[in-house]
Amino acid sequence: xxxxxxxxxxxxxxxxxxxxxxxxxxxxxxxxxxxxxxxxxxxxxxxxxxxxxxxxxxxxxxxxxxxxxxxxxxxxxxxxxxxxxxxxxxxxxxxxxxxxxxxxxxxxxxxxxxxxxxxxxxxxxxxxxxxxxxxxxxxxxxxxxxxxxxxxxxxxxxxxxxxxxxxxxxxxxxxxxxxxxxxxxxxxxxxxxxxxxxxxxxxxxxxxxxxxxxxxxxxxxxxxxxxxxxxxxxxxxxxxxxxxxxxxxxxxxxxxxxxxxxxxxxxxxxxxxxxxxxxxxxxxxxxxxxxxxxxxxxxxxxxxxxxxxxxxxxxxxxxxxxxxxxxxxxxxxxxxxxxx
Length: 340
Hints:
CATH topology of the largest domain: Rossmann fold
Radius of gyration: 22 Å
Number of strands: 12
Shape: globular
Order of helices and strands: HHEHEHEEEHEEHEHEHEEEHHH
CATH class of the largest domain: Alpha Beta
Number of helices: 11
Oligomer: single chain
Distance between the termini: 35 Å
């Protein structure tokens, strides 16, 4: 998190001040009873400055008790850290200093997505697991061809997210997933449903193979439940969707947070992953034969589905959004009842 904060500009004191002061102004204008945040350092800093109760909803890797988003290896030495700038601002409001940026995300109540098996934290960490936060409206439109998918051949749902976020390549682009899957699955005896989450499909991958169906968007929970395998970019929501429906995955993570999610799924036996190699001009690629082998392995080995279903059963026992709402309301009531 220290590195991420540096990358987004928090080594610039003027930028940090302008950002958190904008949140302070917003909070003072509307005078909310509680601030609920999903890892925005400026909002968390402002909530402390205006002395509002703060509820944070985070992934376990954001908690300061964790090893962070790259927990499988040691951090790089001499990493840029904006901690001194943040501590200068905290001191101006008579607030306790921090030793690392992730401490900003510990609220008066800290809610952690997922569950200990999929999103581990050290024992006795002051946080409450709430399971997944997923949604699908009751009137979600299912494509007309959905029921026509054959029961005799596996259904593979490929979700890329945004293939290209900007005119130039960025580390979070997911075009590599589209190129890898069209090359690897074109001649496989599977039915591929390809979606991009309302983002445009790059013309360079057209025409699609004959065994592919494309839709800009499909209701995620329904599609995951109907699928035998998910292939996606490792976004946290995509990972939680597959775990919740008990559907195994092959993940092609495009940066470290997504690689962390992929490694967590592999660790519980609910899937596997391939980290893209980076070629010239930061262009990422995955060998078609490597992806094809992973897909065949996960589809043919029943242990992946067994583990995914086991995780699903545990995950569905958590309260999710309704439990989070009750916990947040309890914080508000407790704050109102405190001595003035």
